[in-house]
Amino acid sequence: MRIRVSSTAMPLSGYWVESALLEETVAPSRTFDFFGKKYNLKFMQISSRLQKILKEAKRVCVLTGAGISAESGVPTFRGGGGTAVWKGMPFDQISSAKMVRENLDEVWEWFDYRRSVLKDCKPNLAHKILAQWQDKFDDFTLITQNIDNLHREAGSREVLELHGNIHRSYCTKCNKRFFMSKDTIPHQPVACDECHSKVRPDVVLFGEFLPPSVYERAERKSMQAELFFIIGTSAVVYPAAGLAEIAKFNGAFLVEINPEETPMTKLCDESFRARSSEVLSLLNELL
Ligand SMILES: [Zn+2]
Questions:
Q1: Which residues share a beta bridge with 90?
Q2: What is the pTM of this model?
Q3: What is the whole-number distance in angstroms between the Cα of residue 170 and the centre of ligand 1?
Q4: Which member of 163, 167, 187, 196 is catalytic?
């Protein structure tokens, strides 16, 4: 994906960016024939203010959600309008703290199924660019609502996983943590090797709080950020939604990347209506 043409109508600069799927595009787009090869190009505008901040910012935070992983083929698993997603149970029932207490085996069956679906999903260009950004800014923080581990697979060394990680588990008694490779399906170990109690998925379920140390860190970094990106999430679920607000009210320039308008759009200084891989490749070229 590359920038093909640029125009410089200040204060906005426009770029034609190669787009994977023309029909999905929201921004003006067209097919471009170049030496017999067809390119789908999308026109995107970026303010001179954002270009400047992008070059000068030292403290940058990115919050990602389901949208970035959807580009890797990761389903949301949520169903719609309370529909059953697993053995007749709605999402908020099978993925709940109550279910862990009452039927942990069933919860594991559901999570092993989800892990089997994820097995062939690979990080996409957006994940890879964000992994590069950890070395491009002095203080870069990646916060995600996703549990699919794709940021780590793309090479991100430190990820603040607000909702946990589907390939991790922990002991229900002594809290010892275990990491499973993607191929370990069904999960292992079944019981803790220290105290022999049952292990459960290291994922934040309905009725549970976000891990306090992870959230506090995310909150502190959001407060300090000069530039804050909300990528592929409507960020309506609190307390994660609060992070963008905290950043904004502490002076950060807030950028949204999402094909759809979201409740956060009004709060943002700049919004891109496109896929995260398209926008991030454009921004990455400008760094
Ligand atoms: Zn234990």
A1: 84
A2: 0.89
A3: 8
A4: 163
